[in-house]
Amino acid sequence: MTETAAARQSEMILSDQDRRGLYRAILGRRDVRGQFLPDAIADDVLARILVAAHYAPSVGFMQPWSFIIVRSPDQRARIKAAFDRANTEAALMFDGERAEKYRALKLEGILDAPINLCITCDRDRAGPVVLGRTHMPEMDLYSTVCAVENLWLAARAEGLGVGWVSIIQPEALRAILGLPEQVVPVAYLCLGKVSHFLAQPELQNSGWRQRLPLQDLVAFDAWQGAASTEDDALLAALRHAQDKAAMGEI
Ligand SMILES: Cc1cc2c(cc1C)N(C[C@H](O)[C@H](O)[C@H](O)COP(=O)(O)O)c1[nH]c(=O)[nH]c(=O)c1N2
Asked: Is the pLDDT of residue 114 over 90?
């Protein structure tokens, strides 16, 4: 290995501090709806988090995403009206106490956040036959979701909150944003500085749903395959790691 290649290789190794920073961003990432501040986001910060999204993995290196930055108050008002229509329909799908609880939740920050961002998937970006998508046609959509998560984590590292709004008819999004037919609106996000990040998901705090024990979601060799004694140490490690994560530690 040449000296430059060796130096480059050592840059690829994350320091312990880097590693911890990554986990802190992952554990501290939140879906933000109610803590947005109206402050503008600096262009260089917005550029960095868009680059993070653009560096996501994608099937056949398809890079099917595009990013529509929605700043216009008129456009956001149209989106908010579409959310309100869908949210009224959604509330009717829950019964009794659950419906009441649903109606009390704040589920979007469309007008509160200074920027909204629609991340789309162009299903034709790389032609009809895509390496890796031949037998799983939804892989381009999954790739776009990888870009969403990259952006979400990068935003968290920059101290910005992101909230995903999916209570909206995709056809309404299409019409408002003028999307062509082959372009799917994958994620509609609200983005901005926040007063604070909550320690736990809002749905957990409100008693809507709790985080599941990770060890119940891990199986061996087949769907719901039972652990053998050789897996005991791993299961203990999972429990330990999740207990620490619940306290915000890694
Ligand atoms: C695909 C998808 C779609 C939505 C969400 C997430 C994802 C991944 N979430 C946020 C969701 O409620 C939240 O991620 C979980 O409650 C866990 O909380 P944290 O993200 O850890 O804060 C979300 N939240 C909300 O208030 N309105 C919404 O429409 C949606 N839609």
From this structure: yes
Which residue out of 117, 166, 173, 212 has the highest number of ligand 1 atoms within 8 Å of its CB and is therefore the one to mutate? 166
In terms of domains, do 157 and 82 share one?
yes
Mean pLDDT value of segment 100-112 = 97
- C-alpha 131/C-alpha 83 separation (Å) is 36
The pTM (predicted TM-score) of the whole model is 0.96
Which amino acid is present at 114? P
Q: How far is CA 62 from the centre of its chain?
A: 20
CATH of the domain at 168: 3.40.109.10
Instruction: Determine the average pLDDT of the residues in 55-70.
Output: 98
Residue to substitute in 153, 164, 205 for testing ligand 1 pocket (most ligand atoms within 8 angstroms of CB): 164
- Domain assignment present for residue 13? The answer is no
Per-chain mean pLDDT for the chain: 96
Ligand 1 centroid to Cα of residue 229, in Å, is 37
- Ligand 1 mean position to 163 CA, how many Å? 7
Q: What are phi and psi of 157, to 5 degrees?
A: -65, -30
* Count of beta carbons in the 10 Å neighbourhood of residue 193: 19
Ligand 1 centre to CA of 29 (Å) is 11
ipTM of this predicted structure: 0.99
Contact between residue 29 and residue 153 where contact means Cβ atoms under 8 Å apart: yes
Nearest atom of ligand 1 to the alpha carbon of 203:
16
In a domain, 161, yes or no: yes
Count up the domains in the chain and report the number: 2
In terms of domains, do 104 and 220 share one? no
Which residues constitute the domain of residue 177? Answer: 30-210
